[in-house]
């Protein structure tokens, strides 16, 4: 049963990644920090040049529209956290996850995370063990649930990036 579920998760991940890669291959440097609305979350260099993401610990209404740069930072943060949990390692603190600062480095980061996750998917032997992220232990979710969540979250973020890319291209046409 584990190998059947593992195959479904792997195939779902590969499909999700292919759709994400479609948009990654078409990004331009100008796409990353394009702000599609007045209320926007983005990434900005701090006083020493580290790129940090806008963030609020309280619920915002309305929710700021993210830039592609912010979305790629967000992917890097949650995926690094999910990978750490899957390996039994300590996840990075949100504030320690920095955006790379340009298109080439961002694409490299996204693809390195993909490779890392592919290895985790290949190496997992017990999809029934309790997941630690993104749910609390009392949720009683399994590692299979966690891996399915990664696929879903990546698909959502890929669609958001794709939509922003298309909106900017239409605006610029």
TrEMBL record:
Entries under InterPro entries matching the protein: DinB-like, DinB/YfiT-like
Domain DinB-like: 12-161
Superkingdom of this protein's organism: Bacteria
Protein name, entry field: DinB family protein
Organism field: Kribbella ginsengisoli
Origin organism lineage: Bacteria, Bacillati, Actinomycetota, Actinomycetes, Propionibacteriales
């Amino acid at each position: 049963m584990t190998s059947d579920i593992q195959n479904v998760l792997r195939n779902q991940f590969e499909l999700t990644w292919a759709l994400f890669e479609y948009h990654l291959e078409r990004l331009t440097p100008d796409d990353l920090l394009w702000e599609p609305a007045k209320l926007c979350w983005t990434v900005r260099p701090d006083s020493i040049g580290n790129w940090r993401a806008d963030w609020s610990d309280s619920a915002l209404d309305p929710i700021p529209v993210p830039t592609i740069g912010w979305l790629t930072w967000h992917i890097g943060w949650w995926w690094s956290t999910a990978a750490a949990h899957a390996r039994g390692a300590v996840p990075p603190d949100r504030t320690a996850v920095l955006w790379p600062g340009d298109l080439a480095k961002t694409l490299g980061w996204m693809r390195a995370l993909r490779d890392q996750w592919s290895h985790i998917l290949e190496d997992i032997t017990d999809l029934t063990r309790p997941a630690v992220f993104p749910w609390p232990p009392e949720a009683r979710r399994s590692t299979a649930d966690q891996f399915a969540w990664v696929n879903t979250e990546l698909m959502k973020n890929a669609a958001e990036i794709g939509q922003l890319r298309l909106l900017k291209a239409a605006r610029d046409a």
